Amino acid sequence: MLWPRFSSLLALVLIFNSVHAAPSQSGDARLIQFKDASGDLQTEWVPQAALNYLAGSRGSVDRTADIVADMSSAALDAITSVNRGPGFLDVTEFQNTVTEKRALKKRAYATPNPSNYPFLQDTYFNQVSADGLYDIVDVLSNNFTTRGYHSSVARAPALWIQQQFEGIVGSANVTLVENSFNQPNVIAKIPGTNSSEIVILAAHLDSTSGDPGSENRAPGADDDASGISILFQTAQILVANGYQGSRTIEFHAYAGEEGGLLGSQTVARQYASDGAEVVAMLQMDMVAYQPSDKPVLTVLTDTDAALVAWTQDLVTAYLSEDTLHTSTCGYACSDHYSWEDNGYPAVSIDESGPYDSSLNPYYHTMQDTIDHLDFDKAVEFVKMGLAFVVEQAA
Ligand SMILES: *[C@@H]1O[C@H](CO)[C@@H](O)[C@H](O)[C@H]1NC(C)=O
Ligand SMILES: *[C@@H]1O[C@H](CO)[C@@H](O)[C@H](O)[C@H]1NC(C)=O
Ligand SMILES: *[C@@H]1O[C@H](CO)[C@@H](O)[C@H](O)[C@H]1NC(C)=O
Ligand SMILES: [Zn+2]
C-alpha cells in the first residue's frame, strides 16, 4: 500500500481541475502538479482528503490552475500526517498520453459455486503451505536490503522473482516489462486453452521504509513480500496439478507501487492500448499481519461493484470459517486502481483496510519484518487466489 509523501515537496503547487476527468468515483482525487525537491515538475493524482486539508489551511483550491505558492514544509508535513492513508498516483511520465480514466467495461459474473470445482477444496487447498510462504518472504525481506524502486539495487529482487516464476511456469511463460526506472515488472502466465481473455492475480514487488530512493533497510515483509508469496504458491499448486483454464491466468509482480502505482500503470496502459481482454484483476497487498484469532480477509469495496460483490461471495463460499471484513481505501491505494483507471474490473483482498485499527503498525518502516507475520493464517489467501483464478478462468 502507499500513502502520499508530501514532505519532500517544495513550494509550488498547481491545481488542475475541469480539463481532466477525475479518475475514480469523481471528486475523490484531483490532478495536481508541483515541483519536487529537485525542481522537477511532477504530476500526480492526490486524494481529496489531502486537498481538503490544503483548502482548509490555504483557502479554496477549487479553481482551475490555482497556484499554491510558498507552502511551508510544515504545511506539507501536516498534510501527510492527517492523511496517512493511501494514496497518490504519479502520472508524470504519462502526462502526454492519457491522464483520463477509461470507461469501465462492466462484466457479469456467475455466482461462485464450490461444487463446480470440487478439486479445489478436496485437493488444492490441502497443498497450501505456511512454511512455503515463510521461505519466500524470508528471502525477499532478508536477502535484499531494500526493494526500493529508486535504490541502486532495485533490479535484483525483480530478477529473483523472474527466476522463481520461470521455475514454476517455464521460461517461455515469463516476461519482464521495463519501466522508466531500473526495476521491471514481472509477468508469468498459465496460457488458457480456448480464450484470449485474461484473469490477473497481482502483488507489488517493491518496498519502502520512507524513501524509495534510499539504500536504507526496507524489509517490506508484509508490504508486499507477503503478496508475492501468495502469487508463487498459487501458481505452484496450479502447475503441480496440471491445471489450465480456458482463459489465460497471469501473475503480475509490479515495480514502483510505492512511487505512485508506477509499474502497474505501465502494464495496465499497455494492455488497454493493445485492446487486451482482462475479465478480472485481483490485487493482494499486505496479507500476513493477522492479529485476530481467526484469519481476516478484507475486501476493499471502492472499485467495480459487481466484482467487489462477487469477491465477497467467493470468500463466503470457500472460506466460511474465516472472517470476511469489508473496508474502503479511497483512491489509488494499490495497483488494482491502475486497472480500474484503464477500464478493467479490479478488486483487492488484504489483511485490513488502510484506515482500520488492525492495520500493520510496522508498515513502511524498517520494522516491517517477518517475525510479525502469521503464515498459518496467510495460507487462506492462497486458497482465495486459487478459487479466484479457477472460478474466473474455467
Ligand atoms: C539468502 O540468505 C541466506 C543466508 O545468508 C542464504 O543461505 C541463502 O542461500 C540466500 N538465498 C537466496 C535465494 O539468495
Ligand atoms: C507454458 O505454460 C504451458 C501451460 O502450463 C505449458 O504447457 C508450456 O509447456 C509452458 N511453456 C514452457 C516453455 O515451459
Ligand atoms: C471454445 O470456446 C467456444 C466459445 O466459448 C466454445 O463454443 C467451444 O466449444 C470451446 N472449445 C473447446 C475445445 O473447449
Ligand atoms: Zn504495498
From TrEMBL:
<comment type="similarity">
    <text>Belongs to the peptidase M28 family. M28E subfamily.</text>
</comment>
<dbReference type="Pfam" id="PF04389">
    <property type="entry name" value="Peptidase_M28"/>
</dbReference>
<feature type="signal peptide">
    <location>
        <begin position="1"/>
        <end position="21"/>
    </location>
</feature>
<keyword id="KW-0732">Signal</keyword>
<dbReference type="GO" id="GO:0008235">
    <property type="term" value="F:metalloexopeptidase activity"/>
</dbReference>
<keyword id="KW-0031">Aminopeptidase</keyword>
<keyword id="KW-0479">Metal-binding</keyword>
<keyword id="KW-0378">Hydrolase</keyword>
<keyword id="KW-0862">Zinc</keyword>
<keyword id="KW-0645">Protease</keyword>
<dbReference type="GO" id="GO:0006508">
    <property type="term" value="P:proteolysis"/>
</dbReference>
<dbReference type="InterPro" id="IPR007484">
    <property type="entry name" value="Peptidase_M28"/>
</dbReference>
<feature type="domain" description="Peptidase M28">
    <location>
        <begin position="185"/>
        <end position="385"/>
    </location>
</feature>
<dbReference type="InterPro" id="IPR045175">
    <property type="entry name" value="M28_fam"/>
</dbReference>
<dbReference type="GO" id="GO:0046872">
    <property type="term" value="F:metal ion binding"/>
</dbReference>
<dbReference type="GO" id="GO:0004177">
    <property type="term" value="F:aminopeptidase activity"/>
</dbReference>
<protein>
    <recommendedName>
        <fullName>Peptide hydrolase</fullName>
        <ecNumber>3.4.-.-</ecNumber>
    </recommendedName>
</protein>
